[in-house]
UniProtKB/TrEMBL annotation:
It comes from the Bacteria. It comes from Streptomyces purpurascens. The keyword Transport does not apply. Residues 173-196 are annotated as: Disordered. InterPro entries: Arg-tRNA-ligase (IPR001278), Arg-tRNA-synth_N (IPR005148), Arg-tRNA-synth_N_sf (IPR036695), DALR_anticod-bd (IPR008909), tRNAsynth_Ia_anticodon-bd (IPR009080). This is arginine--tRNA ligase. PANTHER family: ARGININE--TRNA LIGASE, CYTOPLASMIC, ARGINYL-TRNA SYNTHETASE.
Length: 358
């Protein structure tokens, strides 16, 4: 069961409770499911009971208990626990990871992208300052991943190095490669104005190179001041960008090693990887939120979370010694490939390369 399917299952439980007279509410259009927060458990959690409690004129925990009974009727859900004020924590059968992995491998780097064009035109306006230009460029990539058309307007003249070194699109070109100068005024105007690089003696991000410079400018939230230091080039665990790219490169190496051993990935149940499955399942929601809120830093932090959840899985992917590859090894290899795919796709949306070798 993918997160989208789980969301529909939660809404179905609400609809059944309404039809049977236990809840008197309007069934919402969507139910948000996310990895459990502090104090939670299981594979996913939803706050749908808290969302409905006021309209139902019942305490949130009572609404949660009503929904809990109906959710347990689904064989794909092995347990439902109510925690806190009324959060529903759901545990899924092992096949849930297989369905998610199949979806990721089918969609590839476009996993989490909108299926079709949204038809929205968004105009991003930003000052001619290097951090604002990089944030606007990454925001445009995110919006396009969700089906929107985007153009960027600078208050000033962009430096040519922003395009040649940092990969910033400074030509005013929309998703289809059509000059947008003649496009109509309809659409949303969004101002991109993150805190700029420190003044009066700003550090120059260009010597860091495209990938490290973009990460240094995108990883901090817009209201935080970026640090332009050589730490972004250091290949050690303290560097978040290194952890993300290292996790991706390790998944690619495992695929090469498995091919040498004569076996290929095959989605299946994977035990002990619930945290990784949860964050991979949350990827589409993160992309949508980062695009809607114009916050590429949110995607960057999510990729660090994915990498940190991926690395503990990797030592168990390949058989050891004279051990023969089993279904478990093939399933773990498929999950590792899915994680690498999500990391590569996310980095691409930030305008950062995901190398197969480090």
């Amino acid at each position: 069961m993918t997160p989208v399917e789980l969301s529909r299952t939660v809404l179905h439980a609400v609809r059944r409770a309404v039809d049977q007279g236990e809840l008197s509410v309007t069934v919402p259009e969507r139910a948000v499911v996310t990895p459990p927060g502090p104090g939670g458990c299981g594979d996913y959690a939803t706050n749908i009971a808290l969302q409905l409690a006021r309209a139902a004129e019942q305490p949130p925990r009572r609404v949660a208990e009503i929904l809990r009974v109906r959710l347990l009727d689904d064989r794909r859900i092995t347990d439902v626990v109510v925690t806190g004020a009324g959060f529903l924590n759901l545990s899924l059968e092992g096949a849930a990871s297989a369905a998610l992995v199949e979806e990721i491998l089918r969609r590839g780097r476009r996993y989490g992208h909108a299926a079709g064009a949204g038809g929205n035109l968004v105009q991003l306006q930003c000052p001619a300052e290097v951090r604002a230009a990089v944030v606007a460029d990454a925001t445009a990539r995110l919006l396009r991943s969700q089906g929107d058309s985007v153009r960027i307007t600078y208050d000033g003249r962009p430096a040519p190095e922003w395009e040649s070194v940092l990969g910033v699109d400074t030509k005013g070109v929309d998703t289809k490669g059509v000059d947008t100068e003649g496009m109509g005024p309809d659409g949303a105007d969004v101002t991109i104005r993150p805190i700029p690089i420190p003044v009066p003696t700003p550090a120059d991000p260009l010597p860091l190179g495209r990938d490290a410079a973009r990460w240094a400018l995108l990883y901090p939230a817009a209201h935080d001041r970026p640090r332009i230091t050589g730490d972004h080039l250091v290949q050690r665990e303290t560097n978040p960008l290194f952890r993300v790219r290292y996790a991706h490169a390790r998944t690619r190496a495992l695929l090469r090693n498995a091919d040498d051993l004569g076996f290929r990935p095959e989605p299946g149940p994977v035990s002990g990887a619930e945290a990784l499955v949860a964050v991979l399942g949350d990827h589409p929601r993160i992309l949508t939120a980062a695009a809607t809120d114009h916050t590429p830093d949110r995607l960057a932090r999510h990729l660090v979370t994915v990498a940190d959840a991926t690395l503990p899985l990797l030592p168990a992917v390949l058989p050891l010694g004279g051990e023969k590859p089993s279904a478990a090894h093939r399933a773990r290899l498929a999950l590792a490939e899915a994680a690498g795919t999500v990391l590569a796709g996310g980095l691409s949306l930030l305008g950062i390369e995901a190398p197969d070798h480090l």
